[in-house]
Amino acid sequence: MAAEKQQARLVIIGGGPGGYVAAIRAAQLGSGVVLVEKDLLGGTCLNRGCIPTKAMLACAEVVETIKEAHEYGVKVGEPVPDLKAMVERKDKVSAQLRNGIAQLLKANKVEVVKGTGRLASSNRVVVESEDGEKVIETEKVIIATGSEPARLPTFDFDQPAILTSTEGLELTEIPKSLIIVGSGVVGSEFATIYNALGTKVTMVELMPRILPTEDERISQQMKRILNKKGIEILTEVTIEEMVEYRPDGVKARLSTGDVLEAEKLLVSIGRSLNSSGLGLEEIGVELGKRGEIVVNERMETSVPGVYAIGDVVGGILLAHVASFEGMCAAENAMGLDSRMDYDVVPACIFTEPEIASVGLTPAKAEERGIETRIGRFMFGGLGKALAMGKGQGFVQLVVEASTDKVLGCQIMGPHASDLIHEVALAIRMGVTAEAMGRTVHAHPSLAEAIMEAAEAAHERAIHAAPARK
């Protein structure tokens, strides 16, 4: 039986936060769009990453709030987490958002084709599905195939006790103990979730400190906070060998010679890019050492008419970056001239307390030879934070000494993921610490901490004691 044939101005392979956003933007510009997705709309972010983990973190936060209710003058019984019900709630949230994406694509007249896409040429996409093979002739292609959790050969992922982040979101019984390999964003968020549910969590980290890509002050404070919650953290340590796999647990030998035992082991050591099986090398698309698709600032690959976005290009592996890259690629595919700018990209970690950063850290500014002033304000000195019972953490502003422009910000504290965007806009618009500090902020509010940090850069924060000289 001959393959079904179709024509489209633009074909997008992958319906995650990069692909579906690109599809909608191209449709807004008047293009006919076919979006090819082999699994679920929304990709990893919506179904196995960002949204499910935030739904589970919300459940964990409720548990923690009930445990601390007596501190607010409220008497309640000991909370009893129901992991199965939490997972069901998480799945409902994802399903609701998936349905919303489907409706948006339909409203923008984007055709969604279920199947696995690959490039037969720069203007021909072959889609394999349960119904057979379809060939789509097209003018332009955007590849948005994302990434998957990396799998180290040390671990047998066929064993039920070994988890990636995907399986970590599907458990329906709370494990009594959990080893987490890696203390980056994913590892730290899962530690927060399962610690709140009563699991004994041990984190194993190769680097000298947890959250190794974050500002050192944040890393140190977060370690103290996690330790206080009862989470054991082992740094500069690796798992050299899995000693035993059992239906009810594992034993692992560390590089120190010690043996750890737990009911489950979750591996969170990065992502593997989904660039194989797409026919890229056959048509001449250049790939990097990690299998990343090489693109320029217009998201163009080495083959004219073929674009790539999101995790598969191996840049900043964040959903919101993929979305902006998707809009950039779609606009260029439709004849506009758009370019990606990665200088101002907020990054957030949804631990308790939250962490958020944008722009330069003090260390990165020093590496670039930029003389800076640091403005810092502790949430413990902020009325709104104390009223909420959330006094841990701080705001840190990195300010260029010669121009007074804000170059970066690191926040650890309540609603850090929301607060960071005031500073992101300030950096993008070239705002000075003087202007930020002299902008009236509502009282009582968490945003006052940013104002006070800006004033602290000029040694005139009102609600902080003067620095010792």
Any idea what the radius of gyration is? Answer: 24 Å
What is the share of helical residues? 25-40%
Q: What structural class do you assign from the helix and strand content? A: alpha/beta
pLDDT average, as an integer? 96
Global outline:
globular
Largest sheet: 7 strands, mixed
Number of strands: 22
Which regions have little confidence, pLDDT < 50, spanning 5+ residues? Answer: none
Give the CA-CA distance, first to last residue.
83 Å
Task: Report the portion of residues in β strands.
Answer: 25-35%
Secondary structure tally, helices = 14
Describe the structure in your own words:
The chain is of the alpha/beta class. It has 14 helices and 22 strands. The chain has helices at residues 19-28, 43-48, 50-67, 83-107, 165-168, 185-196, 216-228, 280-283, 319-333, 362-367, 383-388, 416-429, 433-437, 448-456; strands at residues 4-13, 33-37, 111-114, 116-121, 124-129, 132-143, 147-149, 162-163, 177-181, 200-205, 232-235, 239-246, 249-254, 259-262, 264-267, 271-273, 306-308, 347-349, 354-359, 372-378, 394-400, 406-413. The strands form five sheets. Strands 1, 2, 3, 4, 5, 6 and 17 form a seven-stranded mixed beta sheet that branches. β9 (177-181), α6 and β10 form a beta-alpha-beta unit. α1 (19-28) runs parallel beside α9 (319-333) and α3 runs antiparallel to α4 (83-107). The longest helix has 25 residues, at 83-107. The chain is globular. The model has no long low-confidence stretch (mean pLDDT 96).
